[in-house]
Amino acid sequence: MPELPEVEVTRRGLRPHLVGSTIQSVHWSNKRLRSPMPRKFLDLYIRDGRVAAIDRRAKYLLLRMTNKSVLLVHLGMSGNLGLFPAAGPRARHDHLCLLLDNGLELRFNDARRFGAVYVWPPQQAAALENEFSARLGPEPFSDEFNADWLWRRARGKKQAVKNFLMDSRMVAGIGNIYASEILFAAGIHPQTPVRMMKKAAWQNVTASCRALLAQAIKAGGSTISDFLGADGEPGYFQLQFKVYGRAGAGCKQCGQEVKKIVFGGRATYFCPVCQPLHKRRNDSG
Ligand SMILES: [Zn+2]
Question: How much is the pTM?
Answer without folding.
Answer: 0.89
